[in-house]
TrEMBL record:
NCBIfam families: rrf2_super
InterPro entries tied to this protein: Tscrpt_reg_Rrf2 (IPR000944), WH-like_DNA-bd_sf (IPR036388), WH_DNA-bd_sf (IPR036390)
One of the record's GO molecular function terms: DNA-binding transcription factor activity
Protein name: Rrf2 family transcriptional regulator
SUPFAM superfamilies in alphabetical order: Winged helix' DNA-binding domain
Entry GO CC: cytosol
Entry annotated with the keyword ATP-binding: no
Organism: Thalassovita mangrovi
Key word Cytoplasm present: no
Keywords linked to the UniProt accession: DNA-binding
Length: 158
């Protein structure tokens, strides 16, 4: 099993926004710090905006930020959103399915249950859980001139 690039990018975009709550971030900045293509980030941003996860401001001083608090963003919901378009197995899409075993396949049911368990775990995780107190991530993604006080203290101690 492997996540699509878009799902992974969506998580990176949301984490970058959550780590920089007081600032609008540009797509190009996210692409640079996340080591990915600005075009791919833009596609993901468009979808996240359409689904109400982020808001964007156009223009020279524009950029993007979270459209709702990080503790109200379910990672499971984000993953479902981006993964749903690609069926996990051929038989999961009745319109394109050509698998001759579909009518009698037991594997299909087990795979469905395993996927539900996978999403269930992620449903219990919020964006806030990923970033709160994560000074390592803050150091990687922060675009503020200074680290938050709690992380700055942490740096001095180590
Ligand atoms: S073998 Fe079973 S699980 Fe795989 S595509 Fe066919 S019906 Fe689905």
């Amino acid at each position: 099993m492997r996540l699509t690039t878009r799902t992974n990018l969506a998580a990176r975009v949301l984490m970058a926004c959550a780590v920089n709550p007081d600032r609008l971030i540009r797509t190009s900045e996210i692409a640079a710090i996340c080591n990915c293509s600005a075009h791919h980030v833009a596609v993901v941003v468009q979808r996240l905006q359409a689904e109400g996860y982020i808001s964007t401001l156009r223009g020279r001083a524009g950029g993007l930020r979270l459209a709702r608090p990080a503790d109200q963003i379910s990672i499971g919901a984000v993953f479902r959103l981006f993964e749903a378009e690609i069926p996990f197995a051929e038989c999961f899409d009745p319109e394109t399915n050509t698998c001759p075993l579909t009518g009698s396949c037991r594997l299909r049911g087990y795979v469905k249950r395993a996927l539900e368990a996978f999403y269930h775990e992620l449903d219990m995780v919020t964006l806030e859980d990923l970033v709160r107190g994560n000074c390592g991530l803050t150091e990687l993604l922060s675009m503020q001139p200074q680290m938050p006080a709690v992380c700055a203290t942490d740096q001095v101690q180590h």
